[in-house]
Fold this protein.
Amino acid sequence: MSNFRPFTLLMILAAVLMGYSLVAGSGGNTFGLILVLIGLGIGGYILQSRFHAMTKPAAYINYLHARNYLEQRKLQLALEHLDKALALNPSLRPAQVLRSAVLLQMGRPGGVVNNIDELMKQNPRDISLYKARIALNISQEKYGSVVMDANQMINIDPSVPEGYLFRAYARHRLEQYELALPDYKQFVSRVPGHAPALVSLGEVYFHLGDIENAQQAYTQAIASISNFGPAYSNRGFLLAAYGDVSGGMADAQKGVEYSPKEPGVYYNRGCIYAILGEYENAFADFQKALEIKLDYSHAVAATAITHYLAGSREQAQTIWKQLILQEEGFADWEWVRERFGWTGDLKDAAQNLVGMDSSTH
């Protein structure tokens, strides 16, 4: 009850004024005063219940200043006043929601986590909100939710190319390659020369067994950005896997040179070292990949393959069994074949490891 003390005092004052009017004024004036007081009472109640304007007026004033700055597109000042409002009243929900909207406009969706759903209810056709929630869901690997939000984006405005990219990316991660392919193609037709999307398109072609189009997509990415490491690295893996080992290694080396913080470039080069029989170099690259990304199953699987090729069959099988415990697909040769696309000795080693495991059951 103490939170409403200023509001209670206002109502007492209103009652006193009304009583005075009954004694000293006419009936018409009294009725008008009653209406004014009722309006004041309702307005005060709303301000208090929604904004705590009477118990914490400074927070409410900062919130109003923020709205004014937002209308003037002075986003940083709006954000500063919202921060002040929330410091004075952390439970001021309208300020929380407005702060999320300001952060979105400033290109900082990471601060929107707690209020994104409420913002979307208020603005169900705001594309920027879908983009923000998609970014959050991608970071949490909620790819099914990404597909649903991308569908909504495309329904709202089919001309926005990112909707197709987001949906393609999510389906790619869900290993729905046949569904991802047309969306990637749709995106790159609208945004030609987008190197990351072209690399992703190449990966989808690769998983679908279309090696020619995969290589072409990587080459187009390189033509767009001449130092784009993942494109060189992926093309190098393909070249080596299908016979051009020296050309593949040259591309793989460029991949490491241009993108030394990407785990995939070390995996690809490591596979080429394994093809060449340079097992220690292969192990070193797979280890480097795992230092960058601890749960990188490609590098773990390739380590097992390389142990097998190097003659350490028992160690290879131990690693492979651990992979199966994490992902049952490693016990299915068709799944392994499609996922990794190994050829030659690497393919034979993987097929033997899958067969060795199944023979123990």
